[in-house]
Amino acid sequence: MECFAGKASRLLATVLMHWEPGYESAWIILTDLEPEQAQIAWYRLRTWIEGGFKDFKRGFWGWHHSKMERASCVERLWLAMSLAQLWCVSLGCQAEAQDAERVRLQEPGALLPETHIARKKRTRPSGQLPPRRLSCVLRGHLLLLAMQFQGQPFSLGILRIDAWPEVMTPPQKPGSSKKKPTKTSKEKERRRQAKRRARVRSRAQK
Question: What is the dihedral angle through the alpha carbons of 129, 135, 136, 139, rounded to the nearest 10 degrees?
Answer without folding.
Answer: -100
